[in-house]
Amino acid sequence: MNSKLTNNIANLVFWMFGFTILGILIWFLWHILAAGLPHLSWDFITGKPQEIIAGGGVGPQLFNSFYILFLSLLFSIPFGIGAGIWLSEYAKKNWFTDLVRLSTEMLSSVPSIVFGLFGMLVFVTTFGLGFTILGGALTLALLNLPVLVRVTEETLRAVPDSYREASAALGATKWQTIRKVLIPTALPGLVTGITLVAGRALGESAILIFTAGVTVSRFAPDFNVFASGETLAVRLWYVRSEGLVPDAMEIAEGTAALLVIVVLLLNLLIGLPSRYLQRKAAGK
Amino acid sequence: MAIKAAEQNSSPPSYTRAVKRNDRLMHWLFVGSAAFVALIIFSIILFVGNQGIKMFGDPEAGIAEFFFTTDWTPGEGKYGALAFILGSFLVTGLALVIAVPLAVGGAVFMAKIAPNWMREIMRPATDLFVGIPSVVYGLVGLTVFVPFFGGIFGTAGFGLLPAALILAIMILPTILSVSEDALRTLPVALEEASYALGATRWQTIRKVLLPAASPGILTGVILGMGRAIGEAMAVQMVIGNAPILPKGLTEPTSVLTTQIVKEMASPFGSTTNNALFMMSLVLLLVSLSLILIIRVVARRRAV
């Protein structure tokens, strides 16, 4: 009787845990969107920012967010996927493999502010570039790398060995097997991994404050990689901490809602094709 | 046709040679990328550490002073960082106290109790929350928690408590999903054996499932801890940024990350600026030791 009663109580408590967590998540999302959506207008999303007077927009920041994201993926995807392929397809059990694995894990644990200081030390000071989109994107690439390596290795490992054997039996070299068999099969997983990385990179602020700076170019959109490039997340932090604009709260709330919407859309837009690819691969 | 094939065998056409050359070339490119990725962490330790150690070149700044005193007054040559180090651990510990029971309870619920439809809602929701930018968490802390605690405690509301609460929400999805994974991948036989002995579901969860999944849950907790201790922007927005030990849960204070952000405008190469690199070296070493702990835990799990 007693143990039955405790069981029922425990059941109830676990249901409460579940609803509490779901409640927190829904409340959080609702709060951001309810506070920010009223501030979102076409002028706000595309307009130029103001430093002292109210009514500025976040157009250049929105552009910079994607531009820096694109550049950082451009720098990190070849190395990340390359290292992932090596770990899954070539690596033998020796000290070098252990070293690569350990240092990738260590890299994934580095706090983003430490990346920020490192990027500042290397690109801003040592190379003397100052605050630039290039420096920001290169430092951000370091944040992406360990996740890309892990996702690539995991997805490639999930490809059955019979695929490799069949390809080898047809006389294909290892590289031909990787290019024509393994990568196409693993593509949905890779795309999901890249979305994960992109979402994280898009919201990153600590790295970019110290490498890409908190100002935007006078020209928008400015493709010059040596210009400084404030992003949406950095803008949100800046107006709430150091900015002088009178409508800082409206800008911050609007930017927060915009960021969340962008992250949501990114998940949907890249998630859908990946699901389609997965279905195609499974239904073949 | 047969003659043509024989000709190909006797002298490999340039096509085959190109394929072989590509194969070797790609192999070396992959090895190169792996070596490059491995090299980064060491160059970070080297660069950041080297810049940080320069601070002790200033006769006013001593190693013992940095690690064991709490007086941070760079204007008078006092560079004690103990308050920030303690603050970092305090805020992380507090966040864990709030997040871990909720996350582990939620993980048990999702893995073993929740009906399918609820799982279908909760899983993408937690995934989404991992992707929400940390500054957005900070803004919610600033607009909701700070005024809320200010009203209750009669202070400005900035301090450890709103920071810990924000960090708890931030790391909740991480701990939840890793723990749920650990619970879900347990062998079904464990659970069935327990039920066959007449145990109730709660008894099975408490005596069998949680102990069996504990290495995985611990890994999740450590991952969450790493994220909390390294978080800068969200904490900086709600902690009040006073370079002193906290007097209460809602009194302004600082942690390692926020102090770095606050003082980063100091001139590069000054002792203050170098001290910030020393602080990030401390952060880096703490994060790296967390990874080593996870490795030890995982090895125990494999046995």
Automatic annotation (TrEMBL), chain A:
Transmembrane spans: 12-33, 66-87, 99-123, 129-149, 181-202, 251-270
Compartmental location: Cell membrane
Lipid bilayer topology: Multi-pass membrane protein
InterPro entries in the cross-refs: MetI-like, MetI-like_sf, Phosphate_PstA
Chief place where the protein resides: membrane
SUPFAM superfamilies in the record: MetI-like (SSF161098)
Domain named ABC transmembrane type-1: residues: 62-270
Xref: Pfam families: BPD_transp_1
Keyword annotations of the record: Cell membrane, Membrane, Transmembrane, Transmembrane helix, Transport
Matching NCBIfam families: 3a0107s02c
Family of the protein in this entry: Belongs to the binding-protein-dependent transport system permease family. CysTW subfamily.
Official protein name in the record: Phosphate transport system permease protein PstA
Species this protein is from: Tumebacillus lacus
From TrEMBL, chain B:
PROSITE patterns according to UniProt: ABC_TM1 (PS50928)
Keywords: Cell membrane, Membrane, Phosphate transport, Transmembrane, Transmembrane helix, Transport
Membrane topology, from the record: Multi-pass membrane protein
Location of this chain's protein in the cell: Cell membrane
Regions crossing the membrane: 25-48, 81-108, 128-150, 156-176, 208-229, 275-298
Keyword rRNA-binding: no
Pfam families in alphabetical order: BPD_transp_1
Signal peptide: none
Transport in keyword set: yes
Domain ABC transmembrane type-1 intervals: 85-294
InterPro entries: MetI-like, MetI-like_sf, Phosphate_PstC, Phosphate_Transport_Permease
Entry function: Part of the binding-protein-dependent transport system for phosphate; probably responsible for the translocation of the substrate across the membrane.
Family indicated by similarity: Belongs to the binding-protein-dependent transport system permease family. CysTW subfamily.
Protein name as annotated: Phosphate transport system permease protein
Gene name, Swiss-Prot/TrEMBL: pstC
